[in-house]
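## retry 2 of 3
previous attempt timed out at serialization; input unchanged, resubmitting
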Amino acid sequence: MSSIPPDLDTPAINPETEPRRGLMLALSSPSGAGKSTISRALLETEDNLVMSVSATTRPMRPGEIEGKDYYFMDHNKFHSMVENREFLEYATVFDNSYGTPRGPVDEALQNGNDVLFDVDWQGTQQIAQNAGDDLVSIFILPPSISELEKRLYTRAQDSEEVVKSRMSKASSEMSHWDAYDYVIINDEIEESISDVREILQVERRRRRRQPWLVDFVRSLGVGQ
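## retry succeeded, writing output
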């Protein structure tokens, strides 16, 4: 015997306005492959996407704002948060520590916002261990080694010594490409931005991120 929905006038559901759990979007790449450009483009166009804010033990620099650029804290506070497993990922660089506090990220996800991470493969690995199904990871590859080197020189932000250092690290960084959910070869930047945006849209549609679906399906008379 067929089941008839109890309310044939149930209004249509718009997935864009229904509550959902946000996701963590981690982008990684060797320097010069386009990760920062793609991140900026996403943040400018995606209303529900926010950049993760790291905590650090280094001193605040002129013009920096607490809670926007970093959460500034002393070494004792940072160590205490590490001991209490309050970081999704953390590392120490040149005597200063950096990490992503779990609390603000969890709050953003619960409010239906997605959180963007600009991290290396080690940071992504730590987040993957701590975030479970909330993480979506993308690795950005250059179309060739020669093009990567050309981009580093063209942007004229670094000295030749720094460029050579970045190039020497690129092979090691790219060797971890297969640990990511998605891989994009950034030949044309606008196409790559579009590809990442498409991945984001698809991942937002995953059933586990749309808790409202249970009640909606029940409103159709399914399972009653």
